[in-house]
Amino acid sequence: MLLASYSACALLLAACLALELAACRSRPPAAPHHANPAFRRFQRGYYRVYLPALAADWLQGPYLYKLYQHYRFLEGQIAILYVCGFASSVLFGLVSSSLVDRLGRKKSCVLFSLTYSICCLVKLSRDYLVLAVGRVLGGLSTALLFSAFEAWYVHEHVERYDFPTEWIAVTFSRAAFWNNIIAVGAGGVADFFAEWLGLGPVAPFMVSIPLLVLSGVFAVKNWDENYGKKRAFSKTCGDGLKCLLSDRRVLLLGTIQALFESVIYIFIFLWTPVLDPHGAPLGIVFSGFMAASTLGSSLYHLAISKRYHLQPVHLLSLAVLLVFFSLFMLTFSTNPGQESPAESFLAFLLIELSCGLYFPAMGFLRRKVVPEKDRLGVMNWFRLPLNLLACLGLLVLHDSDRQTGTRSMFGVCAAVALLALLAVGRLFALSRHDAELRLPAPPGQADAADAAPEL
């Protein structure tokens, strides 16, 4: 597994680099925002706070399960710790936007740095209840990470600096690019501290703390405070539910998201116990996963380009199909007594590649069919079944006393992915007659289509 992990990571990184270089050559000349020093300075101020926070988050990915296993907890006990994290993430996610708006976006980012630092520190404890509290704090921190930073930036960009709104996408696109690089690098850094220096699985969590402190200090020193409008939580959720039930496309998207992402959450729990017994370097495996996800994202942007002009719904269908195929593979490669770690690793890489295709496709479709005023409420309803399915899957399906427990989980996940595939098929059928669900045709193709005679 050692050679396979390093080789796969290197090949995936080479493929990502080749696609990125090809994309750079085909990009149009520099846009006006490149020549605006005030905008570039504003961007750098945002990245100084946001990127260390992302790095601290990614560093904790490779060795979380291994740490609990190192503390001699049973697999069923570890599953409950994961459930604590998922459950707190959904509960805090429901109220995080309102909390951030009332408390202040800058204060919320500093609060994130504080709570996530405490979450890392409690990893030094071997007490089960203390670790459970740490998972709850981790859920709160995750909710703040994905709400406070973006909300602060958008407000400052539009209200304080009055930059063009279309430049917001430029900042977030560049942040996503650096996020991919940081995610891949985090696996290697975690492996270096945990394995090469022999500091054990708790080391990456301790390395995260200085990054979190740095993020908080930069926010305190360089950011101004801003607040959002007060919104009634009940009205937000009520409007979101009305939108969800009144539009079949929104309901289908919510179904696909709940089914697909609950499977991904269970995969996050299972990959370590499947690969670790076979000597896989967990940090390098994690880097390989992130490289596969980055490759999927690059392939998505290549596929929707003018050269190929595939539709996002096509790529969403492909992503769900790949996940179903991968989970089907895993039901055989994890068969007790006949395990094939190489096949399992390949299946996991395909799942991550699918995630790289899925998330931008789902993001495009959500923006098209969910009105912006209802988006927060709709997303709250999307998250509820998603996390419920993941928690139930970990609690009910996994039996640590049976060797077939892991294989059974993959079998049930494959069935869930098949249901998601059926929902995608229905959405695909709707998209054929719904221009909102499709990218506009390039001018040349559109003119040719208009000129084509009807038969």
Task: Considering the chains and any ligands shown, give keywords for the structure.
0% strand; 17 helices; 455 residues; mainly alpha
Give me a quick take on this structure.
With 455 residues, this protein is mainly alpha-helical.
Mean pLDDT: 86
| Oligomerization status of the protein chains | single chain
Structural class: mainly alpha
| SSE order, one letter for each helix or strand | HHHHHHHHHHHHHHHHH
Count of separate DSSP helical elements: 17
Residue share in β-strands: under 5%
Number of strands: 0
End-to-end separation in angstroms reads 58 Å
The best one-word shape is: globular
Main sheet: strands, sense, barrel: none
What level of helicity do the residues show?
A: over 70%
Give me the Rg, rounded: 22 Å
Q: What are the low-pLDDT stretches, counting only 5+ consecutive residues below 50? A: 446-455
Written description of the protein model:
The chain has 455 residues and is an all-alpha fold. 78% of the residues lie in helices and 0% in strands. The protein has 17 helices and no strands. The C terminus is likely disordered.
